[in-house]
């Protein structure tokens, strides 16, 4: 049966012209209703069989409990496929979804902002061989707003409810309105994929998108970040090495507590409180209690725990104190280039202008045409021979895709070959 929704989907794909069309239609219910949550091995086996027997792409989404629980694990996985319908799976009751991942591994997975969901899906045994990222497709197609709600509204003419994106998805049982929201997140994802594929093909960018999607699917898991404590908000205020050590000790102690209690670290101790204590280096538990973030609601045992971390930092020998900053793994910050290497600064200015101009011509974000880090690395250490083939090889070594090289190698060769401006006497 063809309903009004299907007719609208067939006809709604429009180029990202920015024109306002008719008011979007609220999408209130999934087509087959809200499915029961799959939370047992028996129910999961039925879902695996259904999705293995389905056909076409598989829409996939995951909900986390960021800001509530420790880490970024998935607390709900949503899938939809023609012939199988929609499934809502509880990874707490079904922590190993490897059989499901294997059942659909040969299908194309459709995700929105895939790099956000792939780590938590990988943890539970799901890893696509092929994917289509509707957010990235929207960027390449030139849409100004690429959130899922905006894309569904602009491309398909429907509005999605936005009220439950930041809730605590570790809640059990999950309320029905949340489950409806979760099911609707994959309801139109394949329709959106089909419309965006047509638009990318119309613009001559479909092969570019396929290269981007292949790179995401093939990318290895990210390496653990070195010194993650340095990302504490407010770190720019902390200058002395012993104060840095206090941040490190407090951050580590907080992380251990948060992991043990399975709560977000910010709910154990705020970043602001860590920085306050590191700056003050209080000499007693009482002095610590007087600082912002350590008020009357904090028990004596907790205060002693944080004070012990500060004491550990105070007792460290100078040789064990952290350096003011990590050794750079790439070029220095561009603001220092003019002093360190004026020729490199001139190359960077010319290269940025060239990439920006080409991105505007192609109607896509500059960072999607070529990553700023790649541009910086190329300009700081250009090839010995400035030729288009050498520049192409350098871009390839930095991870640029072939379509990016085709669009930028000649421009960057000219930018690197340009004479730097002469200093006035």
TrEMBL record:
It comes from the Bacteria. Residues 1-33, 320-341 are annotated as: Disordered. SMART domains: 35EXOc, HRDC. Residues 240-320 form the HRDC domain. Residues 320-335 have a biased composition (Pro residues). PANTHER family: RIBONUCLEASE D (PTHR47649). This is Ribonuclease D.
């Amino acid at each position: 049966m063809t309903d009004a929704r299907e007719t609208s989907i067939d006809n709604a794909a429009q180029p990202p012209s920015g024109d306002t069309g008719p008011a979007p239609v609220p999408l209130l219910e999934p087509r087959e209703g809200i499915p029961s949550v799959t939370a047992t091995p028996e129910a999961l086996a039925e879902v695996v069989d259904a999705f293995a027997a389905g056909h076409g792409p598989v829409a996939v989404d995951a909900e986390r409990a960021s800001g509530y629980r420790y880490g970024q694990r998935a607390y709900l996985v949503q899938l939809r496929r023609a012939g199988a319908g929609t499934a809502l799976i509880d990874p707490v009751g079904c922590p190993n979804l490897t059989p499901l991942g294997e059942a659909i591994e040969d299908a194309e997975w459709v995700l929105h902002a895939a790099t956000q969901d792939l780590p938590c899906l990988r943890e539970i045994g799901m890893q696509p061989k092929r994917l289509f990222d509707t957010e990235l497709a929207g960027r390449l197609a030139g849409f100004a707003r690429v959130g899922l709600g905006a894309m569904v509204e602009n491309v398909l003419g429907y509005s999605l409810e936005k009220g439950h994106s930041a809730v605590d998805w570790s809640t059990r049982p999950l309320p029905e309105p949340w489950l409806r929201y979760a099911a609707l997140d994959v309801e139109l994802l394949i329709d959106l994929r089909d419309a965006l594929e047509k638009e990318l093909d119309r613009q001559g960018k479909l092969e570019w998108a396929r290269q981007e999607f292949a790179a995401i699917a093939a990318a290895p898991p990210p390496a653990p970040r070195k010194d993650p404590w340095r990302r504490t908000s407010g770190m720019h205020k902390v200058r002395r090495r012993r104060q840095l050590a206090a941040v490190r000790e407090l951050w580590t102690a907080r992380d251990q507590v948060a992991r043990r209690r399975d709560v977000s670290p910010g709910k154990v101790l705020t970043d602001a409180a860590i920085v306050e204590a590191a700056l003050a280096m209080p000499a007693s538990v009482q002095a610590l209690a007087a600082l912002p973030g350590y008020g009357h609601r904090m028990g004596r045992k907790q205060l002693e725990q944080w004070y012990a971390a500060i004491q550990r930092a105070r007792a460290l020998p100078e040789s064990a104190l952290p350096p003011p900053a990590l050794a750079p793994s790439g070029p220095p910050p561009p603001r220092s280039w003019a002093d360190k290497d004026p020729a490199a600064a001139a190359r960077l200015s010319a290269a940025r202008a060239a990439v920006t101009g080409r991105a505007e011509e192609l109607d896509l974000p500059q960072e999607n045409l070529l990553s700023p880090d790649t541009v910086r690395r190329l300009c700081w250490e250009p090839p010995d021979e400035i030729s288009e083939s050498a520049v192409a090889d350098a871009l390839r070594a930095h991870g640029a895709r072939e379509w990016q090289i085709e669009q930028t190698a000649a421009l960057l060769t000219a930018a690197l070959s340009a004479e730097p401006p002469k200093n006035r006497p």
